[in-house]
Amino acid sequence: MSIIKVKTKLDEYKHRAYSSDINELSGRTNRSDITFFVNNEISKRMDFKPDDVLVDIGCGDGTLLEIAENKGSSCIGILPSEEEVTRVRERFLTKPDLINIEQGLASKTDLPDEVADKVVCNGVFLLLDEEDVNLALKEISRITKPNSLVYIGELCFRDETEGKNYGDSILKWLMWVLLNQGTGEFLSRCKQTLRALFTTEQMLILPKNHYYCTPEEFISRAKSYGLNINEHFPHKSISSNNEVIVSASRQDYIFIKV
């Protein structure tokens, strides 16, 4: 049995690095289609060009890095744990000069000042605490060239745990999925649970808290670190039927470094 309760987000992604499916590093179990869709949307907005230096903080399985590299950009992916770095470096063994994977945090990348033409940090800020949000904004501003774009995505503007009263109970969680996400997602999660029970494939019971703030608050906070808002919009994903879903709780932001 491989059902594991993790206490922190860092521990969660250390465990995900050992999954047979590298897409687990995106946090989207069995949904690599969502990972590609989300990163393709980011690519359209950021318009990666030859000779751009992209820094992707929390680069997950490296999908965005591969998209940008195919457009001629040089890419640096930042991941917090040695386990994640090792796993994603293995993916890009044939492109070591074009895609570099380094260990670091949103709050401390250890990159030089003003190294990046484009910075992306998607699905990371909701994992931070209040203090680290400020440190991450300061760090992102530091590594970004003046007049360059910064994409911060999937930041919640309300508490997504509201109404999720299943705690650490797998049975209650499955019933919540059935009632709130439908039969298809319920059956998928049942299969995931059975694989964890009867194979070595792991399943994680995760921390329930996350960071969230209103767009007005986040835009004001970013501005104090030299990041002026260019545009913001609801985050988009896709259903299992390939239909576009507009998030009711998450916002994406594009800033310009002044």
Summarize the structure.
This protein has 2 domains: 1-8 and 161-208, no CATH class; 31-160 and 210-257, Rossmann fold (3-Layer(aba) Sandwich). The chain is built from 7 helices and 9 strands. It has helices spanning 9-16, 32-46, 63-70, 82-91, 130-143, 170-198, 215-223; strands spanning 3-5, 53-57, 74-79, 99-103, 116-122, 144-156, 203-205, 227-238, 244-257.
Describe this structure in words.
The protein is of the alpha/beta class. The chain has two domains: 1-8 and 161-208, no CATH class; 31-160 and 210-257, Vaccinia Virus protein VP39 (Rossmann fold), CATH 3.40.50. 36% of the residues lie in helices and 26% in strands. It is built from seven helices and nine strands, in the order βααβαβαββαβαβαββ. It has a seven-stranded mixed sheet with strand order 4-3-2-5-6-9-8. Strand 8 (227-238) and strand 9 form a beta hairpin. It is globular and about 50 Å long. The mean pLDDT is 91. Residues 55-152 form the Methyltransferase type domain. Pfam families: Methyltransf_11. GO terms for molecular function: S-adenosylmethionine-dependent methyltransferase activity. This is Class I SAM-dependent methyltransferase. One of its GO terms (biological process) is methylation.
CATH hierarchy class name of the largest domain: Alpha Beta
What is the residue-averaged pLDDT?
91
- What does the largest sheet look like? 7 strands, mixed
Strand order of the largest sheet: 4-3-2-5-6-9-8
Count of DSSP strands: 9
